[in-house]
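Rotation project, supervised by the postdoc (A.L.). Task for the rotation student: set up a whole-complex structure prediction and record inputs and outputs verbatim in this book. Inputs entered:
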Amino acid sequence: MSTIMDRTRGAAASPKSPWPETPWQAAGRRLVDCPSSSVGLVVLITLLLSVPTAALIGARFGNGPLERALAAGQGSLAFALLGGLLGAAVGLAWGVAATALGTRAERSLMRLAERLAGLPLVLALPLAAGLAGRGLWVLAPAAALTAAPFIALVTRAELRTLLRREFLAAAQAAGVPPGRILRRHLIPNAALPLAAAAWTALPRALAAESFAGLLGLGLPTPVPSWGAALAAAIRAGDPAALAAPALLLALTLWALHAVGDGLRAAVGGRSQHAAVGGGRP
Amino acid sequence: MLSFAARRLAAVVPALLLFALCAALAAAAYAPDWSGALRSALAGLPVTVVLVVPPLAAGTLLGALLGLTASLRPRSLCGRAGRTLGALGPALPAFLLAAVLAAPFTMMGRSGWAALPLAWLALAVPPAAQAARLAREALDDELHGDDVKDGLPRAPGGVALLAARGRGLGERTVLWHHAVPLGVAAVVGGLRIAVVATVAGAVAAESLFDVPGAGRLFVTAARASDAGIAVPALAALCGLAVLLGAGAAVLHGWLDPRARRP
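Outputs recorded:
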């Protein structure tokens, strides 16, 4: 019963504070409340701290399988960050353009995103690496392409539900200028759902690079990555060397997904339907 | 329903023609023997179908059953298994499972068709995990979700369940005729994503287990930077994904009338 009262009235930020919590505090609380997403956050922070450390130490002494796998993570994680940010930017721009440019552009842009979402886009990475060389400037756009259509679909759905909310009509009716509506109403309300949508680019980029690296078509050879480590372990027929990178990759993917789910939960139940499969056309 | 199926299947024809055109152009431009390149891509496709369809169907079915059990009997063994499977799903992409299963297998020095059960296993787990998760979440949401709606507390359960209970239907009928179909509809709605992921996983599995399909052809051609074979093979794989995706959409429309809206 207490949770019901809390949710209907707006809970205090902490038992001591007399002020009701702000929407950002509520979102943060919902993110940490979800057990899997807080575990995921801890795992991600640990990995982000230990992977560069392992690379630094490993250059001098270390060569246990776990240290080597941790050091191999730097290429994977850096590429996931780069490709993920690029994919998120492209996807968000795609969705915002579809919302802003009018019905016809929206229909064609979203039909393109729908069609692309039905294709095995991960295969773009090995294809591009094989045909155009394994440079970073070939692989990062290909990884961005694997994530962008999904983010565009979710962005469009989120923005569409947001634009139909009552408070926007109220602000317009009250004569608030469009610039201020954008600053005071649209951007603060869209930020968290769009961040939750953009986050999905990170696991997609990581999985795509590991997939390509496993096939021998990922990042170029001197750059360490988990996919390449898996491929090397299979070529050497060494299950022991396979375990560490496989576990680390699985752990990272799980943590990224868990934090993404937590972000989606932090947005609140309102947009969960739009977020699962990109919404219904 | 028939017209929906016909419409949905006809909608993929332009995409298939586009893929065929791309494949023909790439083969004509880059391959020395263009008809041979196209033929080898098409010849690999049935192998990929054999690798993709059974694990997709079996995995989805089993995962949906486990997910429904996880929601209806959370304390039972199957229920716990469904919950765990759904939670672990994101950590188990098909290519990773295929790599883990392939390492001891290639060590024993065997390859090819003997690997088929292992490849099926690697490809069946991700769809099963996704189905388990979707089924459990949908049914949980429907049965116990949202005890606060629009700021007011109300009886737990979705609107359809409330309406069915309000018309005096028994709890068993409400469960089996109204709640479980919604869980099944959620699973089938996620099938399109599972199709795409399984086709991509099949490429990794074929390449790792050395199964002679379109996926292995694509990977070997891409490693050799041979666009004349890689692009037709990729076009064949994309065509397969689009066809299976349309089949999944038809199945979704059949099981869930809400999905039939154009």
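Student's summary: The first strand of chain B starts at residue 148 and ends at 149.
Supervisor addendum: Chain B has one domain: 2-145+154-260.
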